[in-house]
Amino acid sequence: MENKYLILLYYCYTPIEDPEQFRIDHHLYCIENNIRGRIIVASEGLNGTVSGLREDCEKYMADLKADSRFSKIDFKVEESPTHGFAKLHVRVKPEIVHSSLRHIDPNQRTGIHLEPSEFKKIKDDEDVVIVDVRSNYEHHVGKFKNAVTLDIENFRDFPDKVSELEKYKGKKIVTYCTGGIKCEKASAYLLEQGFENVYQLHGGIIKYGIEEGGEDFEGKCYVFDNRVIANINKVNPVVISECHICHTKTDRMVNCANPVCNLHVPICEDCGWKMEGACSEACKEHPEKRPYDGTGYYQKESNGYNPYKGLNRNKKTALPSDINQLHVS
């Protein structure tokens, strides 16, 4: 199948004076340019994962970069045979990635950026410690070989786990995440806590896979689009995650068929059918259990999805029909 679509992952820490007005304008722009995905707008910047036809995505990237606020955005670009998203959501939030580190401005201080080629050269050095700052469900399905992982359910829990890294203070700390955004604040926080040699993998796992073939990334990378997981390692791939039911090796991610549970875990194909998509016997017998189709992915009901719905929550804005009236900012 031909890869007519692109999936873009990006972020930019930059001041946005009126996040709500930006949200409205950007939402309109995406509709008119057939861009779908999830975009977060905050006073501290922009964070998005979007998809669209190749020409639409190329226009989207060019238009964003033409805005001086976003000229330094580093897009991670992957090809796809289909849209990565069924809908468009542009939302205003207090932060572009939920953390407990709102006082940190990565534009003022953050860990030294390592390009994928530089990371590849030093990742196995004895004085280097690679730290995964993602959540449990992400690093359980894939991580760098010998990486230090932290038992966190959400990124906002990261500061509570930094004490576990104290024994590495004399070494070079290299943080990594999916696309780089979490590392901007995580590495800055490590510096704030007295760590001196702090680095971060620029562009995260995705960029490393694109530019360096993903060598020594074990398992798959959890992603926040309809793919759920992405192949990263084209050099020496292995599967590290285990089936939640039988503990055989599998990287097949499933949402529990019981919507009340909805646990997101690896479940092999055999156990998927045996358990009818449920993660436990109790969930299998739950009266609200969803029909299992072999994928473990449950598309939310569209209910006549209207991309304009909710657009004008706080302001009166006309919906222009001429694309020339729309602006990224």
Ends apart, CA distance between termini: 35 Å
Biggest sheet, strands in spatial order? 4-1-3-2-5
User: What is the beta-strand fraction?
Assistant: 15-25%
The name of the CATH topology of the largest domain is Oxidized Rhodanese, domain 1
Question: Ranges with pLDDT <50 over ≥5 residues?
Answer: 314-329
Helical run tally: 9
Beta-strand segment tally = 16
Taken from the alpha-carbon principal axes, the silhouette is: globular
H-E string: EHEEHEEEHEHEEHEHEHEEEEEHH
Structural class by secondary-structure content? alpha/beta
| Name of the CATH architecture of the largest domain | 3-Layer(aba) Sandwich
Radius of gyration: 21 Å
Mind describing the biggest β-sheet? 5 strands, mixed
The CATH top-level class label of the largest domain: Alpha Beta
Helix proportion: 10-25%
Summarize the structure in words.
It is an enzyme of class 1 (oxidoreductase). Belongs to the TrhO family. Residues 124-217 form the Rhodanese domain. Keywords: Oxidoreductase, tRNA processing. This is tRNA uridine(34) hydroxylase. 22% of the residues lie in helices and 21% in strands. With 329 residues, it is an alpha/beta fold. It has helices spanning 19-32, 54-66, 116-122, 136-139, 158-161, 181-192, 204-212, 269-274, 281-284, and strands at residues 5-13, 36-42, 45-53, 76-80, 88-92, 112-114, 128-132, 142-144, 148-149, 172-176, 198-201, 217-219, 221-222, 229-230, 253-255, 264-266. It is globular, with a radius of gyration of 21 Å. The chain has three domains: 5-96, 2-Layer Sandwich (Alpha-Beta Plaits); 112-222, Oxidized Rhodanese, domain 1 (3-Layer(aba) Sandwich); 242-295, no CATH class. Strands 4-1-3-2-5 form a five-stranded mixed β-sheet.
